[in-house]
Each structure stands twice: as C-alpha cells, then as structure tokens.
Design goal:
The structure holds two protein chains of two kinds.
Chain A: H1 12-31, E1 35-36, E2 42-44, H2 45-49, H3 54-58, E3 62-64, E4 70-73, H4 78-85, H5 88-92, E5 96-105, E6 117-126, H6 131-147, E7 157-162, H7 163-172, H8 177-189, H9 192-196, H10 207-212, E8 217-218, H11 221-229, H12 234-252, E9 259-262, E10 275-280, E11 289-293, E12 307-313, H13 314-320, E13 333-337, H14 342-354, E14 359-363, E15 369-373, E16 376-381, H15 384-399
Parallel strand pairs in A: 1-5, 7-9, 13-14
Antiparallel strand pairs in A: 2-4, 3-4, 5-6, 6-12, 7-10, 8-9, 10-11, 11-12, 13-15, 15-16
Helix pairs in contact in A: 1-6, 6-12, 7-12, 14-15
Chain B: E1 4-9, H1 12-22, E2 39-40, E3 47-52, H2 57-62, E4 68-72, H3 73-79, E5 84-101, H4 106-111, E6 116-119, H5 122-132, E7 137-140, H6 148-151, E8 156-161, H7 165-169, E9 172-187, H8 191-194, H9 196-209
The chains are: A alpha+beta, B alpha/beta.
C-alpha cells in the first residue's frame, strides 16, 4: 500500500488549516461579487496545448480516454475557465466574475520534489479590460493576502509588472526572429551574464535598461526615475504610465502598503498580454500568488475574450504560516456510557453539539458514565447535570 | 531587512572568492581561507557568509537559504537551478570539454556504434549529446573521470579542463571544447526583489573591482 510517488496525504491538522484559508478567501471573493465555478478535473490535451509553454507541456499528466483521445489532468484553472466562458452565449452575457478552488496536477520540475498535486484558489474577471479592471484584480490580490494575516501570513509583498516592458524593449532591438527567441529564452532563464554578451545589441541605447530590469523595483517613484534615466520608446513610456495609473487607483484604495512596481517581473506562462503580478514572502523562494491579464488566450482557437485573474497556492501559503498558528487543537471530549443512559446521553451530546462543542459518544460496560478529554479522565459518575457544566467549562477554557 | 546571506563554495574557489570580495571598497579582511567554520556572522562584515560544498552553492541560493552566492558555471549547467545569473567572475576559469584517448581520432570516436561517455555532469552531458546529435550511453561517476577510458569503462569523458595536465598524464586529448566555465554571482528570485538595492550595489561594486 505505497503512496504514489510525488503525491501527498493530508491529515486532519493540515486539512483544517487549509480549510480555514479557503473559508477566509471564499468569503472575501463572495463579498466582492465573485461566484464560484467548478470546471472538470480533466480536459482534452488539445485544449491546453495552445496555452502552455513547452516546459509546462512536458509537465502535464496525459493519458488516453476510451475513444483514443488524449486527455490531461488540469495543470491550472485559467484555460478551463476560458473554455467555459468562450461559448457564444457566455460572451454575450459578459462580464463575469468567477472564482474557483481545487487541485491542479503537474509533474514536478525535479523527481525529488513532492508537488504533483497542489491546491489553487483563484479568480478571473472575464469580458472586461482597462485600467480599472486590472486595478480591481490587484486590489483583490492584496486584500486576499491581507485577509490571510489573521491566519499567520505575515510580511508578504506583491510585485506588479507588465509584459509590455519586455515586449517594448525586444521590439526596439533590430533582431532576427531566431535572435529574438534566444534573447527571450535567456530572459526566462534569468541569465544576465549571457545577456550582457549579446553583442549585436550591446551598443543599443536601451541595452543598459534591459540589463538593469531586475533591479528596477520600488514604489511609484521608480516610474519617474526610470523615465529620467533611460531613453525609453513611446510604447515603453505608455506602459510605465499605465502602471502609474494602476498604482494611483491602488493607493486611492489605501492598499499600496505591500505593493511594489517591478519592471523586471517575468512570469512563466506565455499567455499573459498585459499587467502581471506576483505575491511572495521573504521566507519562501516561490510565489504565493500569481496572475495577470491574458486577453489573447483564446486567439489561437479563433475567439477572443479579455480576462484578468490570479491564483493563490495554498500549500505554499501554509509553508509560510507562523508556527503558533500550526498548534494542535485541544483533544476532543468523549462520553462513555452504559446502555441504560443511551437516550439521555445522546440528548445531552446533541445539546452540546448545538452549542458548537464537538462530542464523541461511545457505549461501554459498567455502571458509571465516564467523561474523557483525549485520554484524560475528567469525570466518572452518574450526575448528568454535572457533566454538562463540566464540558461547557472545559470548552470555554480552550476557546479563550 | 537584515544582512544579505552569501554562499561561498569551499574547495578550490574559496580562496579566489574571498580574495575577490575583499577587493570591494570598505570590506574588512576576510581571513577565512583556512578556517573550518561553515557559518560566519560578524558585526563588521556586510554579509552573513555560509561556506557550502561547491556543488551545493547554487542550491542554497535557489531555496533561499542564501540570498546570493558564488558558484561555478559548470554547476549551473548541470543543476539548472532557478536563480538569477547576475555577473561573470574572473575566478574558477576552465573549459568543459569532450576528451578521448590519444589513440582514438575524433572520427573514430564519433563513428563508434555503442559510445560510452563518463562524466560527473550527467544532465549537462545528456543535453549536449542531444544538441550535437550524438547517441551515447552516459556513465555517471563521482570523480577521477580520467580513469574511465584507459580502464575501458568509457570511450570518452565530459569534464572540466584547466591546464590540460591531468588529461596529458592520462594520455587523453580534447576532442571538442563545449563551454567556457568560470565563477558566477547568482541571486535568489525572491531575494532579488526583497533586497534589490543591496544586490544591485554589490553587483556594481564587484564590476568596479573586476
């Protein structure tokens, strides 16, 4: 009875923490007018093929269905949700605001990692574009992380960038398509040493800008500084101004405390077309939240639907949760009774449960009723009134 | 935010790394070459230093146990760690090569039907062979790679060469130079966001003393 390699069992303590997070986030999204959807666990591989990058494609679980068609376990939700809402009647009733919770499946990047199955909770705003929609999504991403503070997610940050920056720089360079591809792959690998040796563009006035991108991060003033320090093309200036507009909305919402503008932000998925953002904690090397705008996700399949959204990685959030939150719950209270007390103890247990106190009941031989908390015997006798007050007192003491 | 943690490889590159860092403006003396300490936390130092196994340096950085690190390009090519490669350093210079016995010509080697190549860099070698269109079995070894061809374990090796002395002594020759290798400064993808100013400054100052 071995566990499948790469998979993970979750026991009560962990599941409870995960559900608490889900509860907080669902609550938040519902209050902003988002409705839950549930796409299926498997999709035709051909649906995913257009939206995933090469590396991501290799990591998708694939198998053949009974008709011989290639199907996949979903590696993310965005493509499925875009498929759901690309139907004509759905496009006609746009905009839609939806959220989702569920497992995603990817072969891990290394055989040594346990991450084949991860829980994502995320949202999408479909059918709308523009700076106010982007700002709404980013505001929600910030609010989601803020809401998780009560569950011990502290010192998080959210970096906001835009794919227009790299696109703007790349299109300024006189490069052949193959050179562009290799430049892109260096950027993805974050190999700035090899980038610096890209001699065909090393004399271009925007080259220093490209090399400095990983460090161009800060609050709103980074935009003005960048405009002053580098000879940016008009499309690049437009992109920077767009980020400035988003920033102004976020700060009018008073949500800018944890936000940063990061002109060098690169996201792995190829489908992003506009603003991109990533939430992380200094205590973890991977993002806790990631998202952006992807208006052209469906272009390859012939339809179009503007969309912007993000997903939170629950297992990663749990990794950075403060230790004190991870503490054990107090042991359950159980009542062991001889059969003669069956009716009255059942009634008593039901009364306690109505008050929100979890109770386990068990029949046993003997004459007395025994009350235990975990393995500790806290009462033995026949006084049911006494049992009731004792349990209530115990419960109150661990509530506080 | 606290001090940056820097991972420095032990072994051959330790001395060179410390010498390079001590050239930085206002850097106090770094007398740890012969020290066996693995973690150094000192008030007068601009960073917390950890000394890691040369093959692990970039792994410490990838997982965020160190914010930045010095690592050989050979390790980055093998491990493909998710890190920012920020700066080429003039230390640990050598070449990754395909080498074979003096008695085997290049043509003879590449025409062999069941080619066996010994290396400590199996991932890198697999990719290299794929790109070059060479079919071969890879024999993964932990060291003394030059031993494999004379003893008949492999037909050729993929390994680092600096002076070529070891190759000559074992009657081997370079068949192909695959990649120039040297030390790199790498950064954790999250640290480069949380400590962008400090890392930027370090890169700038290092550039000034290289």
């Amino acid at each position: 009875m071995e566990l499948v390699l790469g998979m993970k069992d979750s026991y009560p303590r962990e599941v409870k923490r995960k559900r608490e997070m889900e509860f907080v986030l669902r609550n938040l999204f519902e209050k902003w007018g988002y409705e839950e959807v549930e796409p299926p666990t498997i999709e035709y591989y051909s649906t995913l093929e257009n939206t995933l990058g090469d590396e991501a494609k290799e990591r998708v679980y694939k198998f053949v269905d009974r008709n011989g068609k290639l199907v996949s376990l979903r590696p993310e939700f965005t493509t499925s949700i875009m498929r759901m809402y690309s139907k004509k009647e759905m496009r006609e009733t746009a905009p839609h605001r939806v959220y989702y919770v569920g497992k995603i499946f990817r072969y891990p990047s290394s055989p040594l990692r346990v991450e084949d199955e991860l829980t994502q909770l995320g949202l999408e705003s479909l059918g709308k574009n523009g700076v106010d929609t982007d700002a709404e999504i980013i505001a929600l991403a910030l609010s989601a992380l803020l809401a998780l503070q009560e569950l011990g997610i502290e010192d998080f940050m959210l970096d906001i960038g835009h794919v227009g920056i790299f696109q703007g720089v790349l299109s300024s360079f006189p490069l052949s398509p193959s050179e562009k591809l290799s430049l892109k792959s260096l950027l993805k690998k974050k190999d700035f040493v090899a980038l610096e040796k890209f001699t065909s563009i090393s004399s271009h006035p925007l080259f220093p800008f490209l090399l400095h991108l990983p460090f161009l991060r800060g609050k709103r003033e980074i935009l003005e500084e960048t405009k002053k320090n580098y000879p940016l093309s008009p499309p690049l200036i437009d992109t920077l101004n767009y980020l400035g507009e988003i920033w102004d909305i976020i700060s009018d919402f008073h949500l800018e405390k944890h936000a940063f503008i990061n002109l060098g932000l690169i996201r792995d998925f190829d489908y992003y077309t506009g603003v991109v953002f990533e939430g992380f904690s200094p205590r973890l090397g991977y993002p806790l939240l990631a998202g952006g705008r992807y208006d052209e996700l469906l272009e390859k399949s012939g339809s179009s639907l503007p969309a912007c959204g993000f997903a939170l990685f629950l297992e990663r959030l749990m990794e950075v949760q403060k230790e004190s939150i991870k503490k054990d719950r107090p042991p359950f209270i159980s009542i062991a009774y001889p059969p003669v007390f069956r009716s009255s103890i059942f009634a008593l247990a039901e009364k306690m449960r109505e008050e929100g106190i979890p109770i386990i009941i068990e029949e046993q031989k003997g004459e007395d009723i025994q009350v235990l908390q975990g393995k500790e015997l806290i009462y033995q006798g026949k006084d049911e009134e006494k049992i009731k007050t004792l349990i209530q007192e115990r419960f109150k003491s661990w509530e506080s | 935010m606290g001090k940056l943690t820097i991972s420095i490889p032990t072994g051959r590159m330790k001395e060179e790394s410390l010498a390079l860092l001590s050239r930085l403006p206002q850097c106090p003396p770094l007398d740890f070459v012969n020290s066996r300490r693995l973690v150094v936390e000192q008030e007068d130092l601009p960073w917390r230093i950890i000394f890691s196994h040369p093959k692990d340096s970039s792994t410490y950085v990838e997982f965020g146990a160190a914010d930045i690190g010095i690592v050989g390009k050979d390790i980055l090519l093998e491990r493909e760690n998710e890190v920012y490669e920020l700066l080429e350093l003039p230390i640990g210079k050598c070449t990754m090569v395909l080498a074979a016995p003096l008695s085997t010509s290049r043509e003879e080697l590449l025409e062999k039907e069941a080619l066996r190549i010994a290396t400590t860099y199996p991932n890198f070698t697999r990719r290299y062979l794929q790109e070059r269109g060479i079919t071969a079995n890879i024999v993964f070894l932990y060291g003394s790679i030059e031993l494999a061809p004379p003893i008949g374990l492999a037909d050729a090796i993929v390994d680092l060469v600096s002076t070529g002395k070891t190759l000559r002594e074992n009657r081997l020759q370079v068949v192909e130079e695959i990649a120039p290798i040297s030390g790199r400064l790498v950064a954790n993808p999250v640290s480069i966001k949380t400590h962008s100013k400090e890392i930027y400054l370090l890169v700038k100052e290092l550039k000034g003393v290289i």
